[in-house]
Amino acid sequence: MIRVQREDFDTGKELERLSGGDHTIGGVASFIGLVRDMGGPNQISALTLEHYPGMTEKKLVEIEAEANRRWPLAASLIVHRYGRLEPGDRIVLVATASPHREAALAACHFLIDWLKTDAPFWKSEETPQGERWVEARADDDMAKDRWR
Amino acid sequence: MSAPVKLLYFAWLRARLGQVEEEVPLPAEVRDVAGLLDWLRSRGPRYAEALRDLSVIRVAVNQDYVGSGHPVRPGDEIAIFPPVTGG
User: Fold this and answer.
1) Has residue B46 been placed in a domain?
2) What is the pLDDT of residue A141?
3) What is the CATH number of the domain that holds B70?
């Protein structure tokens, strides 16, 4: 399942719902992305996430389907927020459930790597010097390439 | 001139162009993404500047990533934006 929303999410409840009732599940893996403030010259007071409604959902559905093709997952979940967020706030939750931990862990890692390069979100940061658009990182592309 | 295409702009491209979206009639000579970007750059200094460096421009036609040779057709939804930075 995928969700794109402005509101925060409750990680515990989301994970419980993901595996609830399915006793074939042996493990749940999760990744939570948070707004980071590196301080110093990279200090930020907030971050705004913009996205492309329609294409965002389409890409997340595709990414999730690809993970389910590659690994035997019992369930998977991507929740991604948009709007203005402050340091420490949750941005994204990726969770996978499988009978075995290897599939859950690998699929979770795959999903966050692919999401970072394929889902149409953009971050702009509020800094003491004004607004600054976050630039894409070459190592995000390399992280995705690992899964080819 | 033929039926319009819907152009969408995101992130710093949206900010530099000063608009979120526009509907424009597709000139007959524009057949693919490369042709569209060339034509957009000719529409004024703001477009020329924002679309100067194509290494930081990505294009999606009807919500799928495409390359510069992908055809564009009347009625298409064409989004132009910088590399994504979510997650």
Assistant:
1) yes
2) 85
3) 3.10.20.30
